[in-house]
Give the backbone structure.
Amino acid sequence: MKVLKVLPLLILAAGLVFTGCKPKDADVKAAVEKALKENPATAGVMVMVTDGVATLSGEVADDAAKTALDASVKAIKGVKSVVNNATIPAPPAPVVVTADDPLTAAVKDATKDHPSVTAAVADGVIKLTGSIEKAKWIKLKQALDALSPKKVDAAGLKIN
C-alpha cells in the first residue's frame, strides 16, 4: 500500500530529472549564436530556438553556405531540428547603358534652331562648341537638360 502512495512521487521525480537534463532553449540559442559568429559567412544570420527547434533567418552567400549552415547548426547539442529560412541574395541586375543614338537624335532636334552651336554625344555626355547669345543659351540649356543626359559640357561654348 505504501508503494502505491510513493509511486506517483517517484514518477514525478524521474520526470523532473529527465527534463532537467535536457539543454534549455536559451543555452542552445547561445551555442548556435556562438557558432554563427565564428563563421564570417554566417555573421548576418539570426536564430530563434523553441523547444529545441532552431529557426534561422538572414542572408547567406549561396546554396553551399546555406547547406553548411544547416549542417553546423544540426550538430549543436540540444538542437532537435533546424528550420532554415536563410535567403540567398539575387544576383545584381546587369547595368544597361542606353545607346547614345536616341540622345543624339534628340540633341540634334534641340540644336536645329542654333546653327552656330555644334553638339556631340558620347557616353551620355553632351559636349557643345560654338557660340550663342545668352538668352538663347538659357532656353537651349533647359531643352538639353530635359533630355536627361549624364552631363551637358558647355566648356567649348562661347556665350555672348
Q: What stands out?
A: The chain has a mean pLDDT of 85. The longest strand covers residues 151-159.
